[in-house]
Automatic annotation (TrEMBL):
This is Uroporphyrinogen decarboxylase. PANTHER family: METHYLCOBAMIDE:COM METHYLTRANSFERASE MTBA. One of its GO terms (biological process) is porphyrin-containing compound biosynthetic process. The lineage of its organism: Bacteria, Bacillati, Bacillota, Clostridia, Eubacteriales. InterPro entries: Methanogen_methyltrans, UROD/MetE-like_sf, Uroporphyrinogen_deCOase. CDD domains: CmuC_like. Residues 121-307 form the Uroporphyrinogen decarboxylase (URO-D) domain. It holds the Pfam family URO-D. GO terms for molecular function: uroporphyrinogen decarboxylase activity.
Amino acid sequence: MLTKRQNLMEVMKGGHPDRFVNQYEFMELILEAPMDLPLAPEPGTRVKNKWGITFDWPADQIGSFPMHDDEHKVVKDITKWKESVKAPSVFYTDEEWAAAEAHANAVDRKDKFVTAFCAPGIFEMTHHLMSMEDALMALYEESEAMKELIAYVVEYELAYAKECIKHIHPDALFHHDDWGSQISTFISPAMFDEFILPAYKKVYGYWKANGVEVIVHHSDSYAATLVPEMIEMGIDIWQGVMTTNKVPELIKKYGGKITFMGDIDSGRVDFPGWTREKIYEDAKKACEECGKLYFIPNLSQGLNISSFPGVYEATSDVIDQLTREMF
């Protein structure tokens, strides 16, 4: 029987996996690494991170989002972003890194990848600072200022990457950045090429030059038109790929260059009245249509969790069942 790591590589290389890769099983996420924002502010609370961005999580919603009223918006004028944006320090004490180092050192790297985690992404940072509407308009109206801001975020990411690599020596990276809605990208491929692609080539190139073997990028959205850019910037696995991307077609076109992780839309199966039968229906369809190579069945959720208790675990159990049925 192949290890989780070996089985993943067989899937990615078009070899001979002996089972479906089961969601996040190959990644040992080192979530203890110090960051500028707690991973999970509690429902019904607000949290301000070290960039000055205030996240609000209404008690009746399943997640948080930055506040962009006049009181809380960090960047009110993109041409004056330098006056209001100051990146936090990437330097933390040895004590603050201790838990992450202990976790990383305890991982059997022959079985799983020690995985660094980074969020929010570069595009997300721009609209977290000023709102989605302002960020999209600024790309058109103040392109040079936006390029300066993106370059500033990139320098912060590179500095944090250096510290992360120094302390936990990851061999995989799980990086967030949502690039679209369910049916379209937020910006055109041409604009993506101008603003976002060069930034990620620097960031992902740095991680790969310093020991990271596998880059997993989360975008639970439509982004099928950006797959060539994903490949160019060094993404190995697109996690969160939704059914609206027509994943089987993407596998036929790009399999061997990139692996697709998802095709079980969280919005369809992760809700208060969820059932194992519905999860099985969607997961079976995904596995039958996408096949055994260049594909990892997974909820589109951006971590190894679900919004409602039991859904992630039930999905993992279903994928094990599908392995028994299809391998």
